[in-house]
Amino acid sequence: MTAPLMQKQWRLAARPDGIPDRSHFELAEVPIPDLEAGKAVVKTLYLGVAPVMLRYMRNETEFESPMALGAVMAGRGVAQVVESDCDDLPVGAIVQARLGWQEYALIDTSHRPAPFLLPTDLPLSHGIGAVSLSGITALVGVRDIGLVKTTDRILVSGAAGGVGSHVADIAKALGAREVVGIAGGPEKCRRLQADMRYDRVIDYKNENMHQALDSAFPDGIDLYFDNVGGPLLDNVLARLRRRARIVICGSISEYLVEKDDKHRFANLQNLGRQDAKMEGFFVFDYEHLYPECIDTLAGWVRNGLLNPIEDISVGIETMPDALADLYLGTNVGVRMVHVGEPNPHP
Amino acid sequence: MTAPLMQKQWRLAARPDGIPDRSHFELAEVPIPDLEAGKAVVKTLYLGVAPVMLRYMRNETEFESPMALGAVMAGRGVAQVVESDCDDLPVGAIVQARLGWQEYALIDTSHRPAPFLLPTDLPLSHGIGAVSLSGITALVGVRDIGLVKTTDRILVSGAAGGVGSHVADIAKALGAREVVGIAGGPEKCRRLQADMRYDRVIDYKNENMHQALDSAFPDGIDLYFDNVGGPLLDNVLARLRRRARIVICGSISEYLVEKDDKHRFANLQNLGRQDAKMEGFFVFDYEHLYPECIDTLAGWVRNGLLNPIEDISVGIETMPDALADLYLGTNVGVRMVHVGEPNPHP
After folding, report:
1. Cβ atoms A176, A326 nearer than 8 A
2. For labeling, which of A6, B82, B194, B298 is most exposed (least CB within 10 Å)?
3. Class of residue A112 by CB neighbours under 10 A (exposed 0-12, middle 13-18, buried 19+)
4. What are the C-alpha distances in Å from B122 to residues B68, B131, B302?
């Protein structure tokens, strides 16, 4: 008689109104899945968190399958293939894939974006951030949506966050001259300048934003990489240069406010007046660019142009806290959880 | 002893707060200019008007030279070259150029967009509209900014106007299935359907816009070609489908309101939520596309896919009224003025 090997798994227990916490999840102990035809069993090494997860939990997105209460919490991460009946997922391979918040997952290549292989010479944690969806989001946003130019005066909000922490390095690798970052609190702001190569830093918690933007952008803003939305976006709309571009990567300030409290934008008409562009994008829609983006980002990491900042807690038990940190604004760099070590002989 | 040949010319006399009228201009009688080295003297045949002219008059634009009080009112039109010292502007040629509101002009090829030759087999008036800047604006907006797809559900405001009157034909020539137009009043709406091939028509003066948009777009809007801005744009923002595109061609509703009365947009965050794009554009920035656009538009006029609607008054004296009509909303199709006939033997 044999007993199945067990694993831990986080399930959605309640739909949060405000910041999600442990009460919205339940930690279950369940058997490690058996291999099925055409699939692979993988062991989770790192799991990432992203602001958009609050929208999954609330069932507000069309691009992620509706998540029922009691379902495994959705999310992607880095994993090692430990059993396989799929040629594209050979045993031992390190992949970035949709795993769910669990220690082992049964995956295949049908889900979009499909699992992708990671560079083997870089730290595994970079498969959550710099050479994965955070880095790709920053690269696609700056280059393909933001159409960055060498003459651009660039502003980034949420500059210490998972995506924002890559933007200055990437913009500079693409030739940009000056990048200004916004973050909250002196310690975050210090790290923007020291570790993330932001040229100027605005502390939104301790500075008057109008004065700070006047001083940093006396002639206006060419490119705004927006991770927060809300009143700050309106402030930027008032300062657009001709043919400016606003890249809407996230609107975390708006996910947590009541519908009736949403900011009403006074300066949107400047978009038309300045023949500017504002564009939202979700990295899942740009899967065709992933191989080239990963090559580009890995190259910059290797030659030192991209310096990934990571914020790692240990153990799958810490997942709800990792997610909450995004909304509490406590993380610096890519927030992730180290769930397990790769098997030496998978 | 000879006296110079004289011409009429409209000059800017005052900067309008609201709708411009005759009091903002003065009609002067001045000599027809003499030919200068490298330039050409042209005879004005048709002059166009455009909503953006109010912004020239108020000195609000960077893309048109600042216009001093007393200067010839800026504007483009169709003209015949009558004297020339410029190989690109041969005597007899019919060109679209920056003329100013006057019967004769001294032009060269230095001003951007440069003068361009018009197809010789089409009515000269089409050089104001369908195969010129109005048509090019509609084509660039629908195709290059709006990235029209055959599955798009398209909405056009200001649909009876100089640009809007071309949009349904152009969208359909590019394969679009259904185009809904918005205009004010039963007569305009009748003409949208009869002459401009709009599939459905909404009369904003006599219908409840929320109900009308609910009924016309039960699943939301893929592409909005915006000529008006303001509350209607906000209403559309609330109805965006995923990866929708909003093309900001004009915001005529906002040119005339006081700064403190500007609409405050409640639904802008949907742009980020739906990974949609909103982009303002000005046709002067797309000069590199003009030759191809003119070929494309002229081809559609010849084969009947594009049916230009024109609204023509006669005599340069009518210029201020032609401009005012745009803001009063009285024109149907491209508002222009027939200033003169080409010389038979220039």
Report:
1. no
2. B194
3. exposed
4. 36, 9, 8
Question: Is B287 within 8 Å of chain A by CB?
Answer: no
Contact B272 A229 (CB under 8 A): yes
pLDDT digits (tens, 9 = 90+) for A225-263: 999 999 999 999 999 999 999 999 977 766 666 666 788
Superfamily of chain region B6-124+309-338: Medium-chain alcohol dehydrogenases, catalytic domain (3.90.180.10)
Distance from CA of A84 to the nearest CA of B (A): 36
Partner-chain contact A248 B229, CB within 8 Å: no
Q: Is residue A104 a contact partner of residue A32, using CB atoms and an 8 Å limit? A: yes
C-alpha distance across the termini of chain B, in Å: 25
Residues 6+ apart with CB under 8 A from A244: A220, A221, A222, A223, A224, A274, A276, A277
Q: CA B2 to CA A3: how far, in whole Å?
A: 114
Q: Give the count of Cβ contacts less than 8 A between chain A and B.
A: 80
Indicate the pLDDT class of residue A329, thresholds 50, 70 and 90: confident
Q: Is omega for the bond preceding A320 within 30 degrees of 0, making it cis? A: no
Instruction: Tell me the CATH class for B134-283.
Output: alpha beta
Judged on CB neighbours under 10 Å (0-12, 13-18, 19+), A27 is middle
- Secondary structure E strands in B172-281: 178-183, 200-203, 221-226, 240-248, 277-280
- Pick among 3.90.180.10, 3.40.50.2300, 3.20.20.370, 3.40.50.1000: CATH of A6-129+308-338: 3.90.180.10
For chain B, positions 10-69, list CB contacts with chain A under 8 A.
Answer: 60, 62-63
Query: What is d(CA B93, CA B252) in angstroms, rounded to the nearest whole number?
Result: 34
Q: Do B279 and A280 touch (CB under 8 A)?
A: no
Query: What residues of chain A, 196 to 235, have a C-beta less than 8 Å from chain B?
Result: 226, 229, 233
Task: State which residue of chain A sits closest to B141, comparing Cα positions.
Answer: A275
| Cα dist from A312 to A332, B313, B330, whole Å | 10, 72, 64
**A254 contacts in chain B (CB < 8 Å):** 269
What is the number of other CB atoms lying within 10 angstroms of the CB of residue A157? 27
Residue of A nearest to B274 (CA): A280
Q: Which CATH superfamily is domain A140-283 in?
A: NAD(P)-binding Rossmann-like Domain (3.40.50.720)
Map out the domains of chain A as residue ranges.
6-129+308-338, 140-283
Q: At what angle do helices A209-216 and A230-237 cross, to 10 degrees?
A: 40
State the DSSP code for A142: I
What's the predicted TM-score (pTM) here?
A: 0.92
Q: CA–CA separation, A166 vs A192, rounded Å?
A: 10
Query: How much of chain A exceeds pLDDT 90, in percent?
Result: 86
Residue A287 at interface with chain B, using a CB cutoff of 8 Å: no
C-alpha span between A336 and A125 (Å, rounded): 8
Using 50, 70 and 90 to split pLDDT, how confident is the model at A211?
A: very high
**Strand A76-84 to A221-226 pairing:** unpaired
In whole angstroms, give the CA distance from residue B173 to residue A145.
28
What's the rounded Cα separation, in Å, for the pair A8 and A182?
38
**Closest CB to A275 among B233, B272, B280:** B280
| Contacts of residue B345, Cβ cutoff 8 Å, sequence gap at least 6 | none
Interface membership of B273 toward A (CB under 8 Å): yes
ipTM: 0.89
A250 and B268: CB-CB below 8 Å?
no
CA distance to A177, A275, B125, B299, per residue, from B292 (Å): 35, 22, 20, 11
- Find the closest chain A residue to B266 by CA distance: A264
